[in-house]
Amino acid sequence: MADVESYESVLLVKQEVFVYKIPPRQTNRGYRATEWNLDAPQWTGRMRLVAKGNDCTMKLEDKNGELFAKCPIEKYPGIAIEAVSDSSRYFVIRIQDDDGRAAFIGLGFSDRSDSFDLNVALQDHFKWIKKSEEIEKEKDETPKADFRFKEGETIKINMKITKKDGSEATVKPKARPTGMGGILPPPPGGVGKIAPPPKVTPTSSPSHVSSNPVPGMDLLNLGGPSTTAAATSPAGGNAESWGDFTTAKPNPPPQASPSNPNWVQF
Q1: pLDDT tens, 68-81?
Q2: How confident is the model at residue 107 (pLDDT cuts 50, 70, 90)?
Q3: What is the DSSP letter of 34?
Q4: Averaged over 155-177, what is the pLDDT?
Q5: Which DSSP state fits 89?
Q6: Peptide bond preceding 41: is omega within 30 degrees of 0, i.e. cis?
Q7: Neighbours of 88 (CB within 10 A)
Q8: What's the rounded Cα separation, in Å, for the pair 16 and 2?
């Protein structure tokens, strides 16, 4: 971007102005236009008030655009341009050449509104310079904000996702599993316990080989383990421990009890 100060802006243009030769000031009182021979101006042309950055210059040019004189204006009101004491249409300006030589001449307008426009244009320009200087001073005194991310700082951005037809697509967040360690919670009602099988105490009889009175009982007992007990005798025992087979009385056949749940009825 080019610097703004490299461009020349036109603040005011007046197509007809009059230049007068003024006598030297004799006292400290202000200039009076009635002393200038107003009926015979020394030069007639146009006036352009231009600005280049903060510099303001009044240029007096002829109808062809040739420069006649220029008046650099550092501040207003000031020594560069001064109003006369007896009229609002006339001013005393200080013109300078490229070598730095200066001279004072009289400048007049044919209409009061033209002189009023010159006053307003000069006041606005220097007010703008003052305001710009205040803004620059505030910028220098105000600390610059640091918008950089601190260490570990993150930012969250919400983005709209649209479909091909232009409608907005809603993104549902994924449900997170509940519980500890990703294990499913237990079913309602608590954890059921399986009852252990009933214990059957085996019975043994020294005078019988088996405590199961019915052959094939182990095959029909589907509800629990079969229990058998064999009669044992100490090593080297006599025959009396086995009993008298000839005199032994037969045991009566056992009867199944219908109340025993381990029996299966056919």
Answers
A1: 999 999 988 888 99
A2: very high
A3: G
A4: 68
A5: S
A6: no
A7: 13
A8: 34
Task: Please compute, for residue 184, the number of CA atoms within 13 A of its CA located in the half-sphere on the CB side.
Answer: 3
Max mean pLDDT among 113-122, 158-167, 223-232 falls in: 113-122
Q: Where is average pLDDT lowest: 28-32, 35-39, 108-112, 165-169?
A: 165-169
Q: Among candidates 42, 127, 115, which has minimal Cα distance to 84?
A: 115
Length of the chain: 266
Within a 10 A sphere around the Cβ of 40, how many other Cβ atoms?
A: 9
Q: State yes or no: pLDDT of 32 exceeds 60.
A: yes
Q: What are phi and psi of 216, to 5 degrees?
A: 75, 10
| Type of residue found at 129 | I
For 86-91, the CB contacts below 8 A with 24+ separation are 86/32, 86/33, 86/34, 87/33, 88/112, 88/115, 88/116, 89/33, 89/114, 89/115, 90/20, 90/33, 90/36, 90/115, 91/115, 91/118
- DSSP H helical ranges for 184-233: 217-220
How high does pLDDT run on average in the chain? 74
In the block, residue with structure tokens 């237990």: 186
How far apart CA 42 and CA 44 sit, in angstroms, is: 7
| Token digits of residue 47 | 């006036």
Tell me the pLDDT band of 231, cut-offs 50, 70 and 90: very low
Distances (CA, A) of 184 to 177, 181, 187: 9, 9, 9
Burial class (CB in 10 A: 0-12, 13-18, 19+), 146: exposed
